[in-house]
Amino acid sequence: MNKERLSYLRLQYLSGNITARELSELKSLVNDPNLDAEFSDLAEEVWMAPDSDVQPMTAEEANKIYLQVTSVVQQKRPVRLWRRLTVAASVILIAGSGLYFLLNKQNSGFKATSVYAADAAPGKVGATLTLANGKQIALSNASKGELAKEAGVMITKQADGKLVYEVAAGANDHKVNTLATARGETYQVRLSDGTMVWLNADSKLTYAASLNGNKGQQERRVKLEGEAYFEVTKNKNSPFIVETGGQEVQVLGTHFNINSYADEPVATTTLLEGSVRVAAGKAGQSVIISPGQQAINRQGSLKVAQANLEQVMDWKQGDFYLNHVNFKTAMRKIARWYNVEVVYDASVSDITEAGGWISRNKKLSEILQSIEATEQVHFKVEGRKVIVFK
C-alpha cells in the first residue's frame, strides 16, 4: 500500500464520491499499525500544503479539532504545524495505531458535552505518610520543612514537594514507615540510602526509616503495592530488594519500573538501566533482564519480553500512552488517575484496542471525548461512574 492510494482515498472522502468499498478499505487501512508512518506523512502534507484543497473553518470549529487532536496525538514537531488548524481541512485524517479522526464541518464527530456534565479534574501530587507510631501526615497539606524526627532519622518535605529521609551517622532505625497514594495522586520520595522512588496513583510503599531492615546492612528491602519507578543508589554490599505480591526484584543499583496492581492480570518489571533479577513462584523461578526488557509474572510463571518503554513510563512523563494497548487496560489507568469507576456494557469487546497519546493533565471529559472520536466506543458519566458502550 503506497501513499498515493491513501491520498486518493482521502480525496474521495473529501469530495463525497467515496464508494462503500473504498470507505471500508480506508477504515481498514487506518487500523493497520504498519501504516503509521504513511498516515503521519499524509497528515503533515495536508497541514503544510500551501495550496490546500480544504475549506476555511470558523474559529469554533478549528478549536474543536484542536482540542481533539492535541489531546490525543503525540506531537513532537514544532508548534508551527498547528497554525494550519485555523484553516484546517474540512476532513482531517490522522492515523496512529488504530486511532483516527474523520471530522468535517457538517459532521465533526464532536460529542455533546452534556454527557460529561459530571467532569473530573486530573490527579495531583499528594500522598499520606504513616509513621511507625501510627501518626498519619497528609503530604499535600503539610508545610515544607521538617515533618518528623526520631532515632536519628529526619523526614522533611522539600520546596518541590518531595519527601526526603536523612539518617544521622550510626542511626539504625528499623521502624517501618508507609507512603501511600490514593486514586488520583502521585508522589516522589528520596529514601535514606539516596534511592529515588516515584509512586503512581493507588500505590503503597513500605520501608524501614533507615532502610536497613531487620538484617542490618546486608540488604535494603521495601514492599510495593501498585506501581512505582525506582532509581536505586548503587551499593554492591547491600542489594536493594522490592517485594510485591508473589515476587521479589533484586538489584544493586539501577533504574526500573514495577507494575503490580492487584486488578492487573500480570505483574511487570521493566528495566531501563543496569541489571535486575526477578524471582517468583513457589518453585523459586528467576530471570535476569537487561535494559529494554520486561519480566512478566503471570501467577508465578515468569517470561521475558522486549518492552515498549514509552508505554511503560507514560505515567511518569504525565501522559497516557495508548497505542496498541488493550482498551480495558487503558481504562484502568484512566480510572486510577481520575478516581472513577468504569462500567462496561456487554457490547464492549474485551479485545478492543485503544490508540494515541493523551496528556494526564487534561480533564476527564477531554480524555473521553478524544477516545470517543475513534468511533469504537461511547461514554456516559454519572457522578464518578463512567459507563462505556458501543
UniProtKB/TrEMBL annotation:
Name of the protein this chain belongs to: Ferric-dicitrate binding protein FerR (Iron transport regulator)
